[in-house]
């Protein structure tokens, strides 16, 4: 049992959020029996990777990330393309890792940062500060303390009797506070929290909570800062639990974690396919207009993104995903869906 105990105040809000998340998972389990088809697993993983990297200023879109992982040529910065490939490899290797293992933590970082930094898979040897612009947000502990701090945190995680939802959030915060690597700490913290949660409920390995964090990025950093100021993880734990609850709600509404429509074609995707069957090529704005939608993020997350990931829709100009002239059309698979 670890002697180190991360500072934390358990609050009624935490217990309420944990109860709500558990209820959401129970309802989901009744529908899915915690099994996801390969297409759903891949689609959710792509959304997770794109959002987690976007938080770190990777500019590749969901469509571009999908294309990279499909082995297609993408016009993008080589570093950003490498980040996508590395992240996919790391998330795919996740079932083989133990959350409390320093060796596995280093392996994961090695995969995630391969070819991106010289010290991939090794704890940092120098001091590091977290900046936003020119403003210092957090000065991490000195490098000489990092090995012991990491070992203490991992030992605490192994012996903690906190609910896994809370323990995973505490770990995430403490990991970011230590900032054990020269680079890649944000994406590693999110990856390791997903690993911890997946050991509790396997379906959480594919919950794209990063998409919620990406949409609430300022609040994410504010929660980290608030925890720093209070010298305890409490504000960050509450934020992350709320993000998990919201991610589950959005997933249920968008069928990200269910396949109630035959073979992963959701109601939303089916509507989009029907529109494209009437007019062979349409821009995203034209599609939103035909579907009577106003919220672009919701359109991309629940209609266009899943349709592209499923292979039912393709871009007319895949080499320039951000082209103003970009339009979308049905693939043969999509046409077969509309006209079986």
TrEMBL record:
Residues 315-340 are annotated as: Disordered. The keyword Ubl conjugation does not apply. It holds the Pfam family Fic-like_C. Residues 329-340 have a biased composition (Basic and acidic residues). ATP binds at residues 183-190, 220-221. The active site is at residue 179. SUPFAM superfamilies: Fic-like. The record marks 56 as: Important for autoinhibition of adenylyltransferase activity. Keywords: ATP-binding, Nucleotide-binding. The keyword ATP-binding applies. GO terms for molecular function: ATP binding. InterPro entries: Fic-like_C (IPR049514), Fido (IPR003812), Fido-like_dom_sf (IPR036597), Fido_containing (IPR040198). Residues 100-242 form the Fido domain. This is Fic family protein.
């Amino acid at each position: 049992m670890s002697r180190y105990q991360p500072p934390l105040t358990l609050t009624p809000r935490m217990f309420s959020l944990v109860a709500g998340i558990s209820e959401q998972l129970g309802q989901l389990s009744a529908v899915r029996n915690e099994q996801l088809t390969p297409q759903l697993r891949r689609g959710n993983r792509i959304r997770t990777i794109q959002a987690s990297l976007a938080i770190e200023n990777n500019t590749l879109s969901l469509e571009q990330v999908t294309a990279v992982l499909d082995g297609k040529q993408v016009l993008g910065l080589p570093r950003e393309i490498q980040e996508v490939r590395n992240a996919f490899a790391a998330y795919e290797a996740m079932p083989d890792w133990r959350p409390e293992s320093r060796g596995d933590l280093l392996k994961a970082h090695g995969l995630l940062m391969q070819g991106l930094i010289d010290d991939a898979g090794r704890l940092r040897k120098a001091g590091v500060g977290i900046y936003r612009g020119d403003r210092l947000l957090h000065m991490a502990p000195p490098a000489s303390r990092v090995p012991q701090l990491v070992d203490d945190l991992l030992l605490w995680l192994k012996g903690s009797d906190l609910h896994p939802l809370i323990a995973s959030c505490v770990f995430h915060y403490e990991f970011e506070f230590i900032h054990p690597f020269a680079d890649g700490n944000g994406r590693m913290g999110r990856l390791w929290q997903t690993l911890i949660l997946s050991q509790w409920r396997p379906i959480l390995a594919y919950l794209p909570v990063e998409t919620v964090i990406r949409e609430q990025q300022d609040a994410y950093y504010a929660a980290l800062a608030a925890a720093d100021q209070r010298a305890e993880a409490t504000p960050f734990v509450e934020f992350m639990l709320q993000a998990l609850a919201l991610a589950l709600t959005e997933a249920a509404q968008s069928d990200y974690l269910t396949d109630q429509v035959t073979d992963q074609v959701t109601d939303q995707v089916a509507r989009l396919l029907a529109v494209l069957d009437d007019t062979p090529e349409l821009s995203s704005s034209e599609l939103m207009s035909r579907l009577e939608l106003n919220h672009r993020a919701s359109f991309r997350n629940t209609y266009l993104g899943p349709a592209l990931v499923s292979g039912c829709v393709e871009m007319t100009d895949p080499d320039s995903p951000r082209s103003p002239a970009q339009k979308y059309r049905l693939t043969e698979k999509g046409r077969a869906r509309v006209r079986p």
